[in-house]
TrEMBL record:
Pfam families membership: PaaA_PaaC
GO biological process: phenylacetate catabolic process
Source organism of this protein record: Cohaesibacter marisflavi
SUPFAM superfamilies: Ferritin-like (SSF47240)
Residue ranges with Basic and acidic residues bias: 24-36
Database matches in InterPro entries: Aromatic_CoA_ox/epox, Ferritin-like, Ferritin-like_SF, PaaA, PaaA_PaaC
UniProt region (Disordered), positions on chain: 1-36
Any one annotated GO CC term: cytosol
Record protein name field: Ring-1,2-phenylacetyl-CoA epoxidase subunit PaaA
Single GO term (MF): phenylacetyl-CoA 1,2-epoxidase activity
Family matches, as NCBIfam families: PA_CoA_Oxy1
Amino acid sequence: MYAQMVKSEGMKSRDEMTPEEQAFQDRVDRGEKIEPKEWMPEGYRKTLIRQIGQHAHSEIVGQLPEGNWITRAPTLERKAILLAKVQDEAGHGLYLYSAAETLGVSRDELTEKLHSGAMKYSSIFNYPTLTWADMGAVGWLVDGAAIMNQVPLQRTSYGPYSRAMIRICKEESFHQRQGYAIMMKMAEGTPAQKEMAQDALNRFWYPSLMMFGPSDAESVHSAQSIAWKIKINTNDELRQKFVDQTVPQAEYLGLSIPDDNLRWNEEKGGYDFSEPNWSEFFEVIKGNGPCNRERMNARVKAWDDGAWFREGLYAHAEKAAHRRAAATTAAE
Ligand code: FAQ
């Protein structure tokens, strides 16, 4: 049904594992959670840092396309809701950076890697948000895709990541509902408003499908990540589930999915659908999407503008440590 998964580089068969690695794999297979101070293979640690770090960066960069519309929300209520959603994304970034820190990497190191282009963030946030209807499409489709990916990640094998996901998923559900509520309002509005909703769906459909990553045949990390239960499902499995869930929602709105090949396939019990343009995806993750430069410039500027504040915090922490040390010496 899905493309064959490729073997991940360096992935070992049981016979090739050391006794320590075998014992670790047994724990994972039994469904035990791995906690920060416990022994883990270096590859497991690195894969988690890559995935959790990329996820954290996505939450932070992901504030930008919606932040763009806070000042232009059509009503005070919509503004308050959007503001709360964007603030939630900042919180998700922080839980995830904290989860990554338990693996021995600092948030500053991760930020530096994002800014230098050594680490990625989700391709979806390199597309522009052109109209208010895009706030609906982002909530409905982008948060919808995020939930599809993140609900299984609540069962991921690394304890801190799994616990961060449980909390994040609760908030993402509200995000998806608020996006769908915007789409419902637009779709039952004037013909011009319905047209805006359709246009937003047309532009966000394929980029949303890309969020799940390349097809299983091109996904270099899936096999190893699934064996370690860092990932629970393959990219194609989750993409299929997302399409199956979203098509009836579009029908309810009276909008059309921009895909002439979309058809219910009775035999597989799911929709057949067109693949996204994968060369566009690989260009976007290489840094050549419509908004990559704008997004990175905004993040680097925010980081640089905040330098005085971070320096103030460090100076304060240093003085407080000196005072504590002096008080301890005086008491002795
Ligand atoms: N964008 O071998 P695979 C959100 C890269 S949700 C960019 O399949 P893997 C909420 C991949 O890193 C969005 N790069 O990789 C929100 C690898 O490159 P590398 C974030 C991508 O890791 C909503 C290469 O392609 N969610 O932010 C993408 O096994 C609204 C080969 O790919 C997560 O991060 C992509 N879409 O599977 C916020 C969820 N796909 O690192 C604000 C956790 C693949 O070797 C507003 N992450 N690549 O240089 C995952 O589940 C996985 O990492 C996948 C990719 C499924 C994304």
